[in-house]
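Structural prep section.
Before we set up the soaks we want a predicted structure of the protein with flavin-adenine dinucleotide in place, mainly to decide which crystallisation condition to try first. Input record follows.
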Amino acid sequence: MAEFTMELNDEQKEVRDWLHGFAADVIRPAAAEWDEREETPWPVIQEAAKVGIYSLDFYAQQYFDPTGLGIPMAMEELFWGDAGIALSIVGTGLAAVGVLANGTEEQIGTWIPQMYGDASDVKVAAFCSSEPDAGSDVASMRTRAVYDEAKDEWVINGTKTWATNGGIANVHVVVAVVDAELGSKGHASFIIPPGTEGLSQGQKFKKHGIRASHTAEVILDNVRVPGSCLLGGKEKLDERLARAREKARQGGERVKNAAMATFEASRPAVGAMAVGTARAAYEVALDYAKTREQFGRPIIDNQGVAFQLADMRTSIDAARLLVWRASWMAVNGKPFTAAEGSMSKLFASETAKKVTAQAVQILGGNGYTREYPVERMHRDAAIYTIFEGTSEIQRLVIARTLSGMTIR
Ligand SMILES: Cc1cc2nc3c(=O)[nH]c(=O)nc-3n(C[C@H](O)[C@H](O)[C@H](O)COP(=O)(O)OP(=O)(O)OC[C@H]3O[C@@H](n4cnc5c(N)ncnc54)[C@H](O)[C@@H]3O)c2cc1C
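Run finished without errors. Recording the tokens verbatim:
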């Protein structure tokens, strides 16, 4: 087990500087354009693929870094560049992790390369869990997958919503109900291969922020996939369902809501994205406050402004520490006895929302215009308190973990 450290090693520093260079030279200059266009920034993803940032190899290297700091460091730098573009770059990773975590070796080898494509023909992937009536309450999911034994095929019907890269993805990973009696324990994940009949894009959402990231509904109308597309395989699923049915029969264990109980390990990564956006806005505000003069002196010469900057930086550093701690715990298999993953995501996302609002205030009228990036950063920051579990759901998870009570 790696000791917890608050300092990046030389190799990590090198990677961080390289990512920072890409974020500063390629992502940041493109941010305003793709925000206005509200389209997937394919040329930027392609640049990221060319240098090796958009690839499973890079992602896996950071993911398996024993210090736990690889992913948070990478996320912070990319999202410092721009949240919408960075999400277009790392969004495929959500689906890839779904396959890595639950797939067989053959599924990993077959599907992950098709999720990324290559630098001359980049592809993206989508992870589709949320539905119109099943957001925080994942157990209410309605999309059904029924096994057609005669053909060894699964037939999937339902509507997914809010899917990052939904409809434009080469490979979709779809979560569906296979046993409605078991709540979220009766869910399974399926690969929907490229060009599968019956899968179509529904509404594409026009969003408040992260507008360079594509978010859409995904309609599944009698989608048929081979048995080999069930992640983990049928045998493993049957065993898992049998265990869950047995527990339900014993009546003891309440079938938990997956959105509330899991994701502890992936939440620090979202916290790190929030730290990146917050740091970006803070830096713009600090520079501005030092150069903008009113009443014959820089505005930072007023405690009212300087103290805000002091608070902003303090919150950002505190958020990063919570994120690094939780990420180290996740990689080293430490139990989250106080929901430390949720804590990190809660604090970092609320910090990003607050700090970007303070940055707009410090830039005054300029902060309110699209001439300055803090306006976009403020819109972008709102997403962190919503996806991967809202702030209220994080508080629920933390409170339940601490108290052992069913808090509503
Ligand atoms: C831009 C974007 C990208 C996304 N990408 C993906 C993706 O790639 N794949 C995917 O599957 N999903 C994705 N999502 C979905 C996201 O995870 C959900 O929006 C989120 O889980 C919240 O669900 P909801 O929107 O249905 O809100 P709801 O669950 O309806 O919540 C509405 C409000 O009620 C509160 N609330 C709900 N239940 C409780 C409770 N028990 N106690 C207290 N408060 C409560 C919530 O905190 C929230 O404030 C994305 C969403 C967005 C906006």
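Observations: Residues 10-122 form a domain with the Butyryl-Coa Dehydrogenase, subunit A; domain 1 fold (CATH 1.10.540.10).
Flagged for discussion at group meeting.
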